[in-house]
Amino acid sequence: MASYSIDFAWVYTMAKKYYVVWAGRETGIFTSWDVTKRSVDKFPQAKYKSFATEAEAKAAFAKSPTSSIGRTSAKPVSPQSVNTTKSISDNEAVLSQFDVVIYTDGGCEPNPGKAGSGIAVYHKGQLAQLWYGLFNPNGTNNTAELNALYQALLMAKNAIENSQTVCIMSDSQYSINCISNWAYGWKAKGWTRKGGEIANLDIIKQAHELYDEMKDKFALKHVAAHSGIEGNELADRMSIYAVDQTNQALSQYQPPLDISKILSLRAG
């Protein structure tokens, strides 16, 4: 399985964030999400919020938390706390909760057949980048899904290193289970399983290693396919665009990002 080394620093250069913790193991103003998360994670009725500037954070910390966040606060980012996003309103909540949301999809025509992967990246709730490629003339849908998820994990790692919160949204339960669930049992048995060979083992190993390294620092979520959720639909179009363009490398879809025009492309 070929691997691709890509510089994803493009979207992740941004100003430092300031986290105010009114109620937690430690209170105050922090500039590290990891420090903030340790303070509020599983702390009863934790109250905290991020701000773009130090002045805003100081002003907020001097007041009661209800003036900034109301009576409740969002739960800390946790991969275990997220399940399936099924509706557009659910999706909007995800976009508002995370700095970076990455949608992945794979397409194959027929299956097995010509396969490609697509990725849509949202930054602060807005579409930032589209990617397509990893074409395989003799691929499968599952391999294309795993390829896209692996590349999303590379993007997530870059974002995490830049102190940003990340959620990856895949419509493939198979891919999610492979890297976050089944892989642990397979690895414990020397990467074997009852019933025969593990399909797509090379890419599963690579993706699982990244997932296991970062699993406490980002969310991996299943998103319902073809349910009108924009990010999922765009990733789908990119996967089929990859099949049409036969791009073996992962390539950036060039601006302008005309969403209505892109959604009019062939769907998978």
Automatic annotation (TrEMBL):
EC numbers for this chain: 3.1.26.4
Catalytically driven reaction(s): Endonucleolytic cleavage to 5'-phosphomonoester
CDD domains given in the database record: RNase_HI_eukaryote_like
Keyword entries, A-Z: Endonuclease, Hydrolase, Magnesium, Metal-binding, Nuclease
Group of enzyme by EC: hydrolase
UniProt cross-references to SUPFAM superfamilies, sorted A to Z: L9 N-domain-like, Ribonuclease H-like
PROSITE patterns, per the entry: RNASE_H_1
InterPro entries recorded: Ribosomal_bL9/RNase_H1_N (IPR009027), RNase_H (IPR050092), RNase_H1_euk (IPR017067), RNase_H1_N (IPR011320), RNase_H1_N_sf (IPR037056), RNaseH-like_sf (IPR012337), RNaseH_domain (IPR002156), RNaseH_sf (IPR036397)
Keyword flag Nuclease: yes
Keyword check for Metal-binding: yes
Gene3D superfamilies: Ribonuclease H-like superfamily/Ribonuclease H, Ribonuclease H1, N-terminal domain
Domain RNase H type-1: 96-244
Cofactor(s) in the UniProt record: Mg(2+)
Family indicated by similarity: Belongs to the RNase H family.
Name of the protein this chain belongs to: ribonuclease H
Lineage of the organism: Bacteria, Pseudomonadati, Pseudomonadota, Gammaproteobacteria, Alteromonadales
